[in-house]
Amino acid sequence: MSTPQMLVQLSSDDLRGIILGAVAEPLGGSLPGSEPPREVLTRKEAADFLRVSLATLDRLARDGDITPRRVGDSPRYLRSELLVCVRGATESESTAPLRALGAA
């Protein structure tokens, strides 16, 4: 039985951040001269990160696929939680967020 594969389109900055994070973690922190990607994103940054419209981002939040945090009156999104939405954290969670994105 083969494992389903998913292709995710990432910007070069996002890919660089993921690679630097993966390399830096075993080393106990960040690499010299590297700036990790911002963990807390605005609504627009989160939509851009997921490459979806603001309406789709709002629907994902309303459906409970992602959880916005509030900073004052403004919603903020954690990059790590958005990655979970794209990748699927567990087998039971993997298809619902992707269906919402139109990928499954």
Question: Which key phrases capture this entry?
Answer:
104 residues, three-stranded antiparallel beta sheet
Largest pleated sheet: 3 strands, antiparallel
Q: For the largest beta sheet, what order do the strands appear in spatially?
A: 1-3-2
Radius of gyration: 15 Å
**CATH topology grouping of the domain at 38-101:** Multidrug-efflux Transporter Regulator, Chain: A, Domain 2
Shape assignment: globular
In the CATH hierarchy, what is the class of the domain at 38-101?
Mainly Alpha
Range of helix content: 40-55%
CATH architecture of the domain at 38-101: Orthogonal Bundle
Can you put this structure into words, describing what you see?
- The chain has 104 residues and is mostly helical.
- The chain has a domain at 38-101: Multidrug-efflux Transporter Regulator, Chain: A, Domain 2, CATH 1.10.1660.
- It contains five helices and three strands.
- It has helices at residues 12-24, 43-50, 54-62, 79-87, 95-101; strands at residues 40-41, 69-71, 74-78.
- A three-stranded antiparallel beta sheet has the order 1-3-2.
- A hairpin with a 2-residue loop joins β2 (69-71) and β3.
- Residues 89-94 have low confidence and may be disordered.
